[in-house]
């Protein structure tokens, strides 16, 4: 994607783009003072995606260096990965291929946002393609394995863009995006499409689109958000929003893909990492963030991992409208109980008066 200027609006999940040929310039030197004042209270949560916040040492951007060679500055790749002038192809549309690309530099940012421009396409028709792409923020790099071309029992964060339903009994609609946080003790179950270890997910129709497809991963103060732009509408759509996530610093960003009996082209066009300007408390600043164990503060049983007919994942943190509905139901329940109690009490009082 060309250089962009946009800002994240929490709650709406949209971006205001300033790229050529598209309406809606993002905030910049000409932003009205009133808008700046209105946004002042949440400025710490906003990145406009400009070069000031772009971390080039963790970003993969065209024009790529090292085209036609087996290496490139800041990034290593292995397996079937092929570097061209237009994209990094993790796997070709061929069976039994695995490939990955990994950043050289460990990331020591506490708050960050990754934008991924990708493309999954191939000749396979419905349910005759696979397997998908994985995006990683993990302790170990360049470790091939069975999980979309990378190792199992990893330490860190994985976002899976899965295109093939291995579980024939699932009601989930594919392609499907899911999130997993692992401290090395969990194994990804391909036969169940990772359902037992999934934190949250959503259906996302990103395969064989005739326009650009994007994914954004944001991590800030324990909140992990995944959003997509797949409709060529230049706006982000909510996919995953989880709180209570703890990720250490000093891990590596990467992407991998794998094919089996079925295949697809899995391409990465760019990976752009932005630093989020967020203030932390003195206690948070005194923590050795490199020693944090990857974890999530809420727990759930595998039996909670149940799909609904729309393909959306039901088990997840109670946030936003779910909390509102829960509180509303609780309030209505209290009111009903109070009314019923008052009626019963009044009836008893009237019955007692008859005995005097």
TrEMBL record:
Domain L-type lectin-like stretches: 52-276
PROSITE patterns: L_LECTIN_LIKE (PS51328)
Signal peptide positions on this chain: 1-44
Entry GO MF terms: D-mannose binding; metal ion binding
Single biological process term from Gene Ontology: endoplasmic reticulum to Golgi vesicle-mediated transport
Chain ranges passing through the membrane: 323-345
GO CC entries: COPII-coated ER to Golgi transport vesicle; endoplasmic reticulum membrane; endoplasmic reticulum-Golgi intermediate compartment; Golgi membrane
Keywords: Disulfide bond, Glycoprotein, Golgi apparatus, Lectin, Membrane, Metal-binding, Signal, Transmembrane, Transmembrane helix
Gene3D superfamilies documented for this protein: 2.60.120.200
Membrane topology: Single-pass type I membrane protein; Single-pass membrane protein
UniProt-annotated location(s): Endoplasmic reticulum membrane; Golgi apparatus membrane
Pfam families, sorted: Lectin_leg-like (PF03388)
Protein name, as recorded: Lectin, mannose binding 2
Native source organism of the sequence: Prolemur simus (Greater bamboo lemur)
Gene coding for it: LMAN2
């Amino acid at each position: 994607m060309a250089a962009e200027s946009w800002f994240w609006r929490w709650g709406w999940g949209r971006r205001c783009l300033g790229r050529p040929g598209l309406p809606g310039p993002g905030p910049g030197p000409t932003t009205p003072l009133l808008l700046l004042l209105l946004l002042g209270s949440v400025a710490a949560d906003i990145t406009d995606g400009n070069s000031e916040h772009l971390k080039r040492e963790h970003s993969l951007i065209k024009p790529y260096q090292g085209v036609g060679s087996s290496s490139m500055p800041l990034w290593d790749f292995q397996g079937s990965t092929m570097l061209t002038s237009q994209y990094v192809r993790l796997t070709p549309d061929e069976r039994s291929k695995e490939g990955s690309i990994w950043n050289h530099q460990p990331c020591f940012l506490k708050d960050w946002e990754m934008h991924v421009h990708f493309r999954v396409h191939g000749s396979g028709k419905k349910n005759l393609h696979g397997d998908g792409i994985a995006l990683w923020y993990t302790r170990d790099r360049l470790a091939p394995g069975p999980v979309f071309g990378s190792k199992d029992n990893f330490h860190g964060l994985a976002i899976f863009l899965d295109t093939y339903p291995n579980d024939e009994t699932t009601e989930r609609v594919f392609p499907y995006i899911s999130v997993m946080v692992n401290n090395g003790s969990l194994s990804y179950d391909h036969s169940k499409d990772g359902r037992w270890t999934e934190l949250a997910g959503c259906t996302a129709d990103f395969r064989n689109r005739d326009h650009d497809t994007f994914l954004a991963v944001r991590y800030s103060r324990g909140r992990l958000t995944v959003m997509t732009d797949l409709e060529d509408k230049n706006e982000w759509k909510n996919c995953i929003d989880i709180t209570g996530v703890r990720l250490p610093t000093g891990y590596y960003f990467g992407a991998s893909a794998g094919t089996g009996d079925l295949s697809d082209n899995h391409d990465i066009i760019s990976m752009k990492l932005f630093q989020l300007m967020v203030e932390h408390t003195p206690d948070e600043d005194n923590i050795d963030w490199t020693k944090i164990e990857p974890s999530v503060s809420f727990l759930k049983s595998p039996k909670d991992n149940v799909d609904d007919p729309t393909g959306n994942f039901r088990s997840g943190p109670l946030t936003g409208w779910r909390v509102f509905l829960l509180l509303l139901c609780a309030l209505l329940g209290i009111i009903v109980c109070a009314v019923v109690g008052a009626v019963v009490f009044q009836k008893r009082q009237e019955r007692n008066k008859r005995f005097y």
